[in-house]
Amino acid sequence: MDIQQHEQLIQVLAEYKNQKASVTFTQWDTDREEEEEVTQFQAQLLETKLTDNEFEEKDLLLVFTTEEGEEMEILMEIPGDEVDLASYEEGHLRIFGTEAEIVLQK
């Protein structure tokens, strides 16, 4: 299922709250073409927050807790327009940011 509304994205993210998930976060360096940094970890989603930013986009804050009890925050910019924001299939959520992508797998 394609997610094209911010409210719908927040509703799907709520299904992941306080549940163990495998997380893959990929971030692209805009200064260097084709340079990417990939971070993978297991964690529980504690909190989500979506706010407007000064670039007419949205900031999506995801706060996780790892198995070791460490809190981890991921802040990514997503489109301000309601376009293809994410895709969701059977416990597999992929969120498309402007310079990053995050995948949550239950």
Note the main sheet.
8 strands, antiparallel
Radius of gyration in whole Å, from Cα?
A: 13 Å
In the CATH hierarchy, the architecture is Distorted Sandwich
CATH C-level class: Mainly Beta
In whole angstroms, the N-to-C terminal distance is: 16 Å
Helix/strand/pairing category: mainly beta
Spell the H/E element sequence.
Answer: EHEEEEEEE
- Multimeric status of the protein: single chain
What count of domains describes the coordinates? 1
Helix share of residues?
under 10%
Number of strands: 8
Account of the protein in words:
Helices cover 8% and strands 57% of the residues. Strand 4 (58-66) and strand 5 (71-78) form a beta hairpin. It has one domain (2-105): Protein Yojf, Chain: A. Strands 1-6-7-8-2-3-4-5 form an eight-stranded antiparallel sheet. The chain is built from one helix and eight strands; from the N terminus they run βαβββββββ. With 106 residues, it is mostly beta strands. The mean pLDDT is 93. The longest helix is centred in the N-terminal third of the chain and has 9 residues, at 6-14. It starts with a strand and ends with a strand. The radius of gyration is 13 Å and the shape is globular.
List the helices and strands and how they pair.
Elements: E1 2-3, H1 6-14, E2 20-28, E3 36-52, E4 58-66, E5 71-78, E6 86-89, E7 92-96, E8 100-105
Antiparallel strand pairs: 1-6, 2-3, 2-8, 3-4, 4-5, 6-7, 7-8
